[in-house]
């Protein structure tokens, strides 16, 4: 403990920097009655340097040998800050800035990874709910739920599974149609051409299914589809196969009476169907929709598409 102390100089509590100066000079703080009374400084010089306060409290150690300058036996004094600890007058701690920076970076990375993992989990759960909700909605529509087996205009047998993974525009009509079917197929071809000019969008597959299998055989379909888009695929089959495909998409068709030349008109549903890569019906477009409106609708469907079935 202190064996020699400087002369005590009692300063007012409001003196600026009194505690900082005392601690920086290795002084011992004298505490009596639970209050800080003075700072006792050990030095060989004769210059005085002691400070007092009336209100500071803190941990203390016994100091029984304070010399003739202010101590009574049994008084307690607060020891100055130990070496290596950060006192009121000391600079930054000895810890390396690089270590502190690495620590902060590590904590930031851990927090970022946690946030990213939470986001990914919430997003996955949301997509799963969207898939289930969309699947239920499409099941309730009950359009295009079944399969079909038809011949294309090259004579190759085709089924619904052959178009999985593709966006499909599907139209039911017949080759002897005087005006409506050619107009709708031309409109469908214009939509495909417009979307083909946008590289970010997938290529659409246009498909034409006949509702008049009696006259529209493979040769007739091949001759007819040449007048429209080069990717247009014509499908035909037996009357029963065509009826099954028409029924799956709720297409009404009925052949009218034959004239004296044996010609007749087939009354049928006039709709263009949009089929998703999952093979499910997504939307339809009637005669009031032009090619620009249909193309805009398809863009929105493609952008908001959520895959329903895993590969």
Verbal overview:
The chain is 32% helix and 18% strand. The protein is an alpha+beta fold and 311 residues long. It has a 7-stranded mixed sheet. Strands 2-1-4-3 form a 4-stranded antiparallel sheet, with no helix packed on it. It is rod-shaped, with a radius of gyration of 45 Å. The relative contact order is 0.10.
Structure in a nutshell:
This protein is α+β, with helices and mostly antiparallel strands.
Quantity of strands, as a count: 13
Low-confidence stretches: 1-14, 43-92
H and E string: HEEEEHEEEHEHEHEEEEH
Biggest sheet strand order reads 6-5-9-8-7-12-13
Sketch the major β-sheet: 7 strands, mixed
Number of helices: 6
| % residues in beta strands | 15-25%
Helix content: 25-40%
Indicate the radius of gyration in whole angstroms. Answer: 45 Å
The helix/strand class is: alpha+beta
* Measured distance between first and last alpha carbons: 82 Å
Detail the topology: elements first, then pairings.
Elements: H1 18-24, E1 28-32, E2 35-40, E3 61-62, E4 76-78, H2 97-141, E5 149-152, E6 157-159, E7 167-173, H3 180-196, E8 204-210, H4 218-225, E9 233-236, H5 239-248, E10 253-255, E11 266-268, E12 272-275, E13 281-285, H6 291-304
Parallel strand pairs: 7-8, 8-9
Antiparallel strand pairs: 1-2, 1-4, 3-4, 5-6, 5-9, 7-12, 10-11, 12-13
Features:
7-stranded mixed beta sheet, 13 strands, alpha+beta, 4-stranded antiparallel beta sheet, 6 helices, 311 residues, rod-shaped, disordered N terminus
């Amino acid at each position: 403990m202190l064996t020699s102390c400087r002369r005590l100089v009692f300063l007012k509590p409001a003196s600026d920097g009194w505690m900082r100066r005392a601690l920086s000079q290795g002084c011992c703080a004298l505490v009596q009655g639970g209050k800080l009374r003075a700072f006792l400084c050990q030095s060989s010089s004769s210059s005085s340097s002691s400070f007092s306060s009336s209100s500071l409290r803190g941990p203390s150690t016994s100091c029984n040998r304070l010399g003739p300058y202010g101590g009574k036996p049994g008084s307690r004094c607060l020891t100055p800050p130990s070496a290596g600890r950060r006192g009121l007058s000391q600079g930054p701690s000895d810890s390396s800035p690089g270590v502190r920076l690495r620590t902060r970076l590590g904590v930031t990375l851990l927090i970022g990874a946690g946030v990213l993992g939470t986001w990914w989990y919430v997003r996955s759960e949301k997509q799963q709910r969207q898939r289930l909700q969309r699947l239920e909605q499409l099941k309730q529509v009950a359009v295009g739920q079944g399969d079909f087996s038809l011949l294309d205009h090259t004579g190759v047998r085709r089924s619904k599974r052959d178009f999985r993974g593709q966006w499909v525009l599907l139209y039911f009509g017949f080759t002897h149609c005087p005006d409506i079917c050619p107009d709708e197929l031309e409109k469908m071809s214009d939509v495909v051409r417009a979307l083909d000019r946008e590289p970010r969008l997938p290529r659409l597959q246009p498909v034409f299914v006949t509702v008049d299998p009696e006259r529209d055989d493979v040769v007739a379909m091949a001759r007819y589809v040449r007048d429209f888009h080069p990717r247009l695929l014509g499908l035909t089959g037996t009357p029963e196969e065509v009826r099954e495909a028409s029924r799956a998409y709720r297409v009404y068709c009925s052949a009218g009476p034959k004239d004296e030349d044996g010609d007749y008109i087939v009354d049928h549903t006039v709709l263009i169907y949009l089929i998703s890569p999952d093979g499910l019906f997504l939307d339809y477009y009637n005669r009031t929709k032009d090619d620009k409106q249909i193309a805009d609708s398809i863009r929105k469907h493609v952008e908001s598409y959520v895959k329903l079935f895993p590969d």
